[in-house]
């Protein structure tokens, strides 16, 4: 791919740009931000790491979208960060304005691009981006489930003192406190989690996963997570660039899948060169389906704030 753009040069955006460059997923990475000099300075600093890290992807910074023209992918991280005590829904009005303006620029400069939304509340921000650009659902995805699943897997690995590589899990639903970790799908080296942990410990891990972002916000005091979110976004970008067709949980626009439609929600997605290539439906227990419907209702409630 010739060019990938990362919108927002804060911690998440800058770390995402660096990871993309180090994996050489494009010939050029453009880092865009409204703060004068910041994207240029960070991009130059990152490029100066190239001889040490051994990559040839060029990084440039910009205040406008001219240099992004023809980008195959936009990773959108711009927006306000969540502060201690602030819910994701508190962000919706301001970030919707920001994402609306960003989406207009994307549609103008790269009408064939794929958008990977990271800005919170991301299920609703993905909807704002799709509505504003007019892009088909295949080309607008939200980075939610990859991060939530990574957190779930990391906590399980800590609990059992095993490699994260042997922990398989799936988290569906909205990217927030109502997310739905599917305990019925979790395995460790092929062994169901329910055979390795008591119900109470599993429930504690599920709850920690739901509060994972807030836990980090509370510890940092200012700012929010960025290492894991950027890694999750880049995993999606790599599946697109290399047409890997990874099956990853991501926020996708539903058109009847799981009995839901008219909203973005975290579901298992096959992600390839065209973006969303397929939504894979899995069997849910009655409790899991009820939880997924409740999570969808939360997303709709946030959409309603914007008249959706």
Feature tags:
Rossmann fold; 14 strands; 308 residues; L-2-Hydroxyisocaproate Dehydrogenase, Chain A, domain 2; six-stranded parallel beta sheet
Describe the structure.
The strands form four sheets. A six-stranded parallel beta sheet has the order 3-2-1-4-5-6, sandwiched between helices. A three-stranded antiparallel beta sheet has the order 7-10-11, with helices on one face. The relative contact order is 0.13. With 308 residues, the chain is an alpha/beta fold. It folds into two domains: 3-142, Rossmann fold (3-Layer(aba) Sandwich), CATH 3.40.50; 145-305, Lactate dehydrogenase/glycoside hydrolase, family 4, C-terminal (L-2-Hydroxyisocaproate Dehydrogenase, Chain A, domain 2), CATH 3.90.110.10. Helix 5 (122-133) links the parallel strand 5 (114-117) and strand 6 (140-142). The protein has ten helices and 14 strands. The chain is globular and about 55 Å long. Helix content is 42%, strand content 20%. It starts with a strand and ends with a helix. The chain has helices at 11-22, 38-47, 50-53, 92-109, 122-133, 145-160, 199-210, 212-220, 227-241, 286-305, and strands spanning 3-7, 28-32, 58-62, 73-76, 114-117, 140-142, 167-168, 171-172, 180-181, 187-188, 191-192, 246-255, 261-272, 275-279.
